[in-house]
Amino acid sequence: MRKMLAAVSRVLSGVAQKPASRVLVASRNFANDATFEIKKCDLHRLEEGPPVTTVLTREDGLKYYRMMQTVRRMELKADQLYKQKIIRGFCHLCDGQEACCVGLEAGINPTDHLITAYRAHGFTFTRGLSVREILAELTGRRGGCAKGKGGSMHMYAKNFYGGNGIVGAQVPLGAGIALACKYNGKDEVCLTLYGDGAANQGQIFEAYNMAALWKLPCIFICENNRYGMGTSVERAAASTDYYKRGDFIPGLRVDGMDILCVREATKFAAAYCRSGKGPILMELQTYRYHGHSMSDPGVSYRTREEIQEVRSKSDPIMLLKDRMVNSNLASVEELKEIDVEVRKEIEDAAQFATADPEPPLEELGYHIYCNDPPFEVRGANQWIKFKSIS
Ligand SMILES: Cc1ncc(C[n+]2csc(CCOP(=O)(O)OP(=O)(O)O)c2C)c(N)n1
Ligand SMILES: [Mg+2]
């Protein structure tokens, strides 16, 4: 009994030391999980699709909320650093599309594989790297995830193959990674992402063909954010039903603004591939708030009203937040606390990304080849000495 009293007193004194809001949060009785209806996917060559209801646990909900908010804040910080000319060169932001990267990750295993195009910051984070390493890569610093030499389009992590700048070129590579999964007899799949603009590329149809012929465990994923580089999908594509464009490959059209929809569709697609049936195609209907890149204000080919409408009616973070609060999975105060923590993490990371030194000039030519001996490539070798012109 004395032991029990001591334990109770320890707990109480611990609570007493915490700020008032934390006590409030801790003392509220939240639901452990809740069931939600989600939008039915449109199907192509499939008898059945993903479920139309799903269970979200409080733990997962909080995790998804934090991850999406981190990606959003990281992108906004990148925008700011770019405008301050601390980040230079290419930079493609994915704010608005957070339910895609976080939802896809929630539907696969860390041992599965993922490859995407140049809008890659969110995926680099969801595949396991820190905001610090990502922002420092953007500012070209030594602590960046590609040692400050890759920049926005060239970030990699375990089972994440970038970050690719040539539109569509990552799609045959993704089919190749899926071939490796099958060849090695692993129960793994490859998520191969591309945009609606890239979907019109010839090499994508070649990859569809080989993947279907060889029954590769490849999930082709078209992030349809309604625009390519300054062009709407209607102006660029003879068919905007991207989920049907694999023809002989079954497809799903998914609400890409709803993380739960993306998660369930991904689980469904991954199970399909793992069962040996071959590739499947998912079209994620999403939206990017920023322009195509930093040089595109993004309002010459779409209206400000359109952007505002998406922001106010189908923002992926707001949607999850509303669901969690309305079903007593979390409180507004608790989510605000997460926002504060996320902002702090981003500020710390930005601090690091501006204070960390650039890689030394003599190392600029390193880390290009995996083999040791130096050899000449177009007049350069990895031991070449660079001189500063400033
Ligand atoms: C082979 C090739 N052609 C053109 C470009 C220039 N380019 C970069 S992104 C882009 C549009 C791609 O749009 P989409 O696939 O919809 O992706 P999003 O930017 O919307 O994510 C173009 C034409 C390029 N990088 N590579
Ligand atoms: Mg696009």
Automatic annotation (TrEMBL):
<keyword id="KW-0809">Transit peptide</keyword>
<dbReference type="Pfam" id="PF00676">
    <property type="entry name" value="E1_dh"/>
</dbReference>
<dbReference type="InterPro" id="IPR029061">
    <property type="entry name" value="THDP-binding"/>
</dbReference>
<keyword id="KW-0560">Oxidoreductase</keyword>
<dbReference type="InterPro" id="IPR001017">
    <property type="entry name" value="DH_E1"/>
</dbReference>
<keyword id="KW-0786">Thiamine pyrophosphate</keyword>
<dbReference type="InterPro" id="IPR050642">
    <property type="entry name" value="PDH_E1_Alpha_Subunit"/>
</dbReference>
<comment type="function">
    <text>The pyruvate dehydrogenase complex catalyzes the overall conversion of pyruvate to acetyl-CoA and CO(2), and thereby links the glycolytic pathway to the tricarboxylic cycle.</text>
</comment>
<keyword id="KW-0119">Carbohydrate metabolism</keyword>
<protein>
    <recommendedName>
        <fullName>Pyruvate dehydrogenase E1 component subunit alpha</fullName>
        <ecNumber>1.2.4.1</ecNumber>
    </recommendedName>
</protein>
<keyword id="KW-0816">Tricarboxylic acid cycle</keyword>
<dbReference type="InterPro" id="IPR017597">
    <property type="entry name" value="Pyrv_DH_E1_asu_subgrp-y"/>
</dbReference>
<feature type="domain" description="Dehydrogenase E1 component">
    <location>
        <begin position="67"/>
        <end position="361"/>
    </location>
</feature>
<keyword id="KW-0670">Pyruvate</keyword>
<keyword id="KW-0313">Glucose metabolism</keyword>
